[in-house]
Design brief:
The complex is a heterodimer of chains A (1019) and B (210). Chain A has 1019 residues and is of the alpha+beta class. Chain A is 16% helix and 38% strand. Chain A has nine helices and 73 strands. A five-stranded parallel sheet of chain B has the order 2-1-3-4-5, with helices on both faces. The chains are: A alpha+beta (1019), B alpha/beta (210).
């Protein structure tokens, strides 16, 4: 389903009018020029100045360059009901109405691009609903001319059509031909509430206020013949002149003042023979104050002069082969164009299409030329105000006056083979010189004989390549090997052999040469072998040749043409190297203007400097005018009325502002001060937006793009009915791009636009300089999802969530393990604790029953003690591994309790000093156990071995360490012997302390002097 | 005769305890049970003067059973007999109305002393346990009030908290051992009155989260 818009998109681009042909002031658009359909009916201009071309095969929107189709698709009811569109009319709400051939009317909502179909505007039995004409009256009401349903008025409130029947007694549903047909509607010039209706059974006058029809018949001898009354078109020109076009009866004039008809057939024979295929008129429009354009189906476009009752054929003019003579609509649009539709061509007439004046062909003395002469040289004689022209296959010299009216020709006393007349020159004494290429001969004008006579040249002058007069009036001739100068006062010749210091320049032979004079009057010669300078003062030659490499030299040795501008700068046309600037004062060449840097042509054939200092050049791509100061150029071609784009013939400029371009058979001339310029501002518009072949629709002037899109293509255009091809476009994307980018392509592609809001500014610039207003489009590229705050937040949350879940899982696992461990130790604790306790109890019971004296009693005592010890040890282990007991306070409480109980049990006095343990003082499992074990071991030793009466235990905190001192007043022991015995108790304590970096352990004891045990552990 | 009922899931200990108590005159172990699931019925039928109650038993825990016993017969004395020193069990028992808390590792002679003590109206607690109880209440004093403790009682409490034995307290404060016992008993009662379920919940929550 998505394929269709894509295909349509391709089609849209295909209908650009790719080239343009202008002939005799008419631009011709045929299928080769991009016309998308044949069977043209009419051009219509909507309020926004778009042009709409209705044809038998679709409706097309036209901007002067590109045709955009609006086609019917039978399955899509939001398209046109038929591709055969007969007429168009925009209503005051901006809806575009289309009448169709057989399928009623349709209404286009241009904001949505959707059509609404009214297949049968009035309900009747006939399915075939042919609309002939749509007309909007001065009150904005829409009127419809139908086949057999009379006149319709659209009621926009009720969205239906009211019907007005001219002849109620006749058929009213279109099933009978030529009854109640309204083929054309027009308002009266004086009273716009009166409509004139062209019916095929006569003319009707309809009063829109009273709804009364009045019927007029063109009767001859009281008889109304069908031939004279089958009106197809009505054109009220003045209050006295209503022009009617008939089918077979030609043009008919009707004067409403006296209800008088008069027949004006263009084909009088056909009319006399009642030939229905002759004198068929489809459209009428005023051509000038005194003439009408008449579109005929049998004789093309005619211009009719009523005062003379004379027809002049306008189109087709035979320039193109196989042009149809079947002409339909004529429209004048707001830009001043007049449009003519034929079966297969669209013609546009506009004054700008002849701004280079009309081409003149040379006078043909004997009917026709054997050869086709073209102008090869022209001089202006200010004294007489005449242009003298020579041509390359002529029969002499042609003389024209200042208005370029042909005066006479001057014959040349030349052999019959020598007709290749070339340069004319006027010397300082008023003599006119002429050279010919073939002989070569030199001719001088003899004013007495009024002809050019042969002038004997110096014997050594073997060839003549160019002839030119300098500012002093002396004549210079370039030959294959040097320059000849003739003093115009004494007619004496000087010869300057081409000579330079370079050995390669010796014996050089030129085949082509052109003489131009610089600001100082020194002659320069452009040749097929470089540029040569001759210095009058020193008589020395200097040459400039092709130079390749980094620095610019002469771009090509073959110089087609060159000129000096008003500032003395030289402009060269090296063959196929564009236009090259050269500074003769410094000898520096600059980069040529060529395709490489945007110049429109690579091959320049002729260059001149005009009276205003502009450089004009003829190229194979047309004519250009180059501003040497601002380095800007304008090109001209056939669209401007030039005979052709391929210019290879000479160009001439005169001090009076006139310019002459040699063309085949003759010449074209213009005055540089009177070239009309295009002043109509083009209207730029954005057309289509697409990304990856998918169309995008802007909302309220803003194009919202998906964040992840790749390339965005925007196509645009400009409404400019005249010379749309000459438009170039410039755009910039703000913010960021202050410089305008120019393009001739009507599409821009952007790729990789970063997120943000942009404004695309677009303008069109005509080559004549007129610019369009800026058009803006807002582009909004949303922050990519992954860069939006909520996404980032979401991702962070999700990640945090994942981390949390993992953490929880691991924690859970750890807790599970912990729990398992706890539960095992708990069960173990419970089980063993209970068992150990019961052993103890049983031992006690047994002890009691046996009595203290019994021999087993000490054994039972031992059993009970062991059980108690086992229980305590297990308690200790379980206590110390339980992380709940990591507070130092816990440890000290437990220690105090343990020591107190032990000592109290053994009736030993004691003093315990433990440091105040704040809640933040934590001890890890290892330290806890080590502290516990040291204290326990020490206390137990004292109890077991020291036979002491008092024990003191003191622990203090100093500099992040715990220092403990356990002392008793017991019997002491031999430390060395103890070490020797390897008493585990002492060694264990030492080892426990040694683990710590700053741990210390010391025992001081002596037989009978008690024991002092010192240890130092980290906090 | 003092009618004693024992709840303990360790058969050996049950029997040993029975034997140990029987060695003492005036004690009658009227029943031993390996679980407290039918504790209400048991108490109703047996009307014991003293119940020695293990905590970790299959089915109903001892901590739960205390309340039921006290509910059934408020005059029945209950001594917890367990290996566990954890606050959770301890406080649950105390708050439910246990009269003593004896650890199983206690030497049999001392065990008998405690039984005697409780029958005499004392509050027998293994010394460490006493400290725990008081430490807890000491730490949470700001949350509660000062439980209407006298200055002397507060002093004793401080010492208990620091791990002093009764004897050490007596020495420290220059009072008779019996006097300190009496003070301690008063302290328990005062605390006991203030020991609601909320306090336990708070205590547990505090312990679990810290």
């Amino acid at each position: 389903m998505f394929r269709f818009p894509f295909i349509l998109w391709i089609i849209l681009l295909a209908y650009s009018a790719s080239s343009q042909v202008v002939n005799n002031g008419f631009r011709i658009i045929g299928q080769t020029e991009g016309l998308p359909a044949i069977g043209l009916n009419k051009i219509y201009e909507s309020a926004d100045h778009f042009l709409w071309l209705s044809t038998q095969s679709g409706l097309f929107r036209f901007d002067g360059f590109r045709f955009v189709p609006y086609l019917s698709q039978s399955r899509d009811t939001t398209t046109l009901s038929s591709n055969a569109v007969t007429d168009l009319q925009e209503d005051h709400q901006g809806y575009l109405w289309a009448g169709t051939f057989g399928k009623g009317v349709c209404r286009l909502d241009r904001t949505t691009g959707k059509w609404k179909r009214y297949l049968r505007p009035t309900a009747d039995a006939n399915e075939f609903y042919w609309i002939f004409d749509l007309f909007r009256d001065h009150r904005g009401r829409l009127w419809v001319g139908t086949n057999g349903r009379g006149l319709l008025l659209y009621d926009e409130k009720k969205d239906l059509f009211r019907q007005f029947i001219p002849s109620p007694s006749k058929n009213t549903n279109g099933s009978v031909r030529f009854e109640n047909e309204v083929r054309s509607i027009a308002a009266d010039i004086k009273d716009p509430d009166i409509l004139w209706l062209a019916g095929t059974d006569g003319l009707y006058r309809f009063d829109t206020r009273t709804h009364i029809f009045q019927h007029f018949e063109n009767k001859k001898n009281g008889v109304a013949e069908w031939l004279d009354n089958s009106f197809h078109f009505v054109y009220p020109q003045t209050s006295h002149d209503i022009w009617l076009g008939t089918w077979g009866g030609g043009l008919v004039h009707f004067d409403p003042a006296n209800n008088h008809f008069s027949n004006r057939p263009h084909n009088r024979t056909g009319y006399a023979q009642k030939n229905l295929s002759a004198n068929v008129i489809s459209n009428i429009l005023s051509a000038s104050d005194s003439s009408l354009f008449i579109s005929t189906l049998d004789a093309g476009l005619l211009e009719y002069f009523p005062s003379e009752n004379r027809y002049q054929k306008k189109l087709p003019d035979g320039n193109k082969k196989k042009e149809s003579i079947f002409f339909t609509g004529i429209t004048r649009t707001s830009d001043g164009s007049t449009w003519f539709c034929s079966n297969d061509m669209l013609y546009q007439q506009h004054p700008l299409y002849k701004r280079f004046g009309e081409y003149q062909s040379f006078f043909q003395p004997e009917g026709k030329f054997v050869y086709k002469p073209s102008l090869s040289s022209v001089i202006y004689l200010p004294s007489v105000g005449q242009y003298w022209m020579s041509c390359n296959a002529g029969y002499g010299i042609y003389v024209y006056d200042q208005q370029f009216r042909y005066l006479y020709s001057v014959s040349v006393e030349s052999p019959s083979y020598d007709k290749q007349f070339r340069d004319l020159a006027l010397d300082g004494s008023g003599r006119i010189w002429l050279m010919s290429l073939d002989a070569p001969y030199l001719y001088l004008y003899d004013s007495g004989e009024k002809m050019f006579v042969h002038y004997k040249r110096p014997a050594s002058m073997k060839s003549i390549l160019d002839l030119r007069a300098d500012i002093n009036g002396d004549i210079w001739i370039m030959t294959h090997d040097g320059l000849w100068k003739m003093n115009h006062r004494n007619l004496e010749w000087d010869f300057y052999l081409v000579n330079s210091n370079r050995s390669s320049d010796k014996n050089i032979v030129f085949r082509w040469a052109q003489i131009r004079f610089d600001k100082q009057g020194n002659p320069w010669v452009g040749t097929d072998k470089g540029l040569w300078q001759f210095k009058n003062a020193t008589k020395a030659w200097n040459s400039f040749l092709l130079k390749e490499g980094k620095e610019y030299g002469l771009a090509a040795n073959n110089i087609s043409a060159f000129t000096f501008d008003k500032k003395g700068m030289c402009w060269l046309a090296p063959l196929d190297e564009g236009l090259q600037p050269f500074d003769p004062f410094t000898g520096i060449f600059k980069e040529p203007y060529s395709f490489a840097n945007g110049f429109f042509s690579q091959r320049v054939n002729a260059i001149v400097t005009d009276a205003a200092g502009m450089i004009w050049g003829g190229t194979i791509n047309g004519l250009f005018r180059f501003d040497p100061i601002h380095k800007k150029w304008v090109s001209f071609n056939r669209q401007d009325g030039l005979q052709k784009d391929y210019i290879d013939l000479p160009l001439f400029a005169f001090d009076n502002g006139e310019m002459i371009l040699s063309v085949d058979h003759g010449f074209t001339h213009w005055n540089i001060n009177h070239i009309p310029s295009n002043t109509q501002r083009p209207i730029v518009y954005f057309d289509q937006y697409s990304s990856a072949g998918k169309k995008l629709i802007p909302l309220k002037g803003e194009l919202r793009l998906a964040g992840d899109m790749g390339e965005l293509t925007i196509s645009f255009g400009a409404i400019a009915p005249v010379m749309n091809h000459r438009l170039s476009f410039a755009y910039r994307l703000l913010p960021g791009q202050q410089q305008w980018t120019t393009t001739n392509d009507r599409r821009i592609s952007f790729a990789g636009l970063g997120h943000g809001t942009y404004t695309l500014q677009l303008k069109a610039i005509h080559s004549d300089g007129v610019e369009s207003e800026l058009k803006e489009l807002k582009l909004f590229v949303p922050t990519p999802v992954w860069m939006r705050w909520w996404f980032v937040l979401l991702m962070l949350t999700i990640m945090a969530g994942i981390f949390y879940i993992v953490y929880r899982y691991r924690l859970k696992q750890a807790l599970k393990l912990h729990e398992l461990r706890n539960s095992i130790s708990r069960d173990l604790h419970d089980e063993i604790g209970s068992s150990v306790s019961s052993v103890n109890m049983l031992a006690t019971v047994a002890k009691q029953q046996l009595g203290e004296a019994h021999a087993v009693t000490p054994l039972l005592e031992q059993i009970g003690q062991s059980a108690l010890t086992a229980g305590e040890s297990m308690d200790e282990i379980i206590w110390s591994v339980n992380p709940k007991h990591d507070g130092a306070e816990d440890t000290f409480i437990r220690l105090r309790k343990y020591i107190s109980e032990q000592l109290e049990t053994h009736q030993i006095d004691y003093a315990i000093h433990f440091p105040e343990a704040d809640a933040g003082w934590k001890m890890n499992m290892q330290l806890r156990r080590d502290l516990w074990m040291i204290c326990k071991e020490a206390v137990n030793n004292s109890i077991k071995y020291a036979k002491c009466n008092k024990l003191t235990i003191e622990i203090i905190r100093i500099n992040g360490m715990m220092e403990g001192l356990i002392s008793d007043d017991g019997i002491g022991f031999d430390l060395v012997a103890a070490e020797h015995k390897k008493r585990n108790g002492l060694r264990n304590m030492k080892e426990r302390v040694a683990k710590y970096k700053r741990g210390r352990f010391e025992v001081k004891t002596e037989k009978g002097r008690g024991t002092q045990l010192f240890f130092c552990l980290p906090e | 005769m003092v009618r004693i009922v024992i709840y303990d899931d360790n058969e050996l200990l049950r029997k040993s305890m029975q034997l140990l108590l029987l060695t003492q005159p005036g004690y009658e172990v009227v029943a031993v049970f390996d679980n407290a699931n039918e504790v209400k019925r048991d108490i109703e039928q047996l009307h014991p003067d003293l119940v020695i109650l293990d905590i970790d038993m299959p089915g109903r825990k001892g901590t739960e059973a205390v309340g039921l016993i006290k509910e059934t017969d408020p005059n029945c004395l209950v001594v917890m007999h367990t290996v566990f020193e954890e606050e959770e069990n301890l406080f649950a028992s105390l708050c439910a109305g246990a009269n003593g808390y004896i650890l199983k590792k206690t030497a049999p002679e001392r065990f008998l002393t405690y039984i005697e003590e409780v029958l005499a109206g004392g509050a027998p607690f293994s010394p460490g346990i006493a400290q725990k109880v008081l430490t807890f209440f000491h730490h949470h004093r700001p949350l509660q009030n000062d439980f209407n403790l006298t200055e002397r009682e507060k002093q004793i409490l401080q010492l208990l908290v620091k791990g002093y034995t009764y004897k050490a307290i007596s020495a420290e404060l220059s009072i008779a051992l019996d006097t300190s016992r009496k003070h301690i008993r008063n302290i328990y009662e005062k605390l006991h009155v203030n020991c609601g379920r909320e306090a336990v919940a708070l205590a547990l929550q505090h312990k679990l989260t810290s």
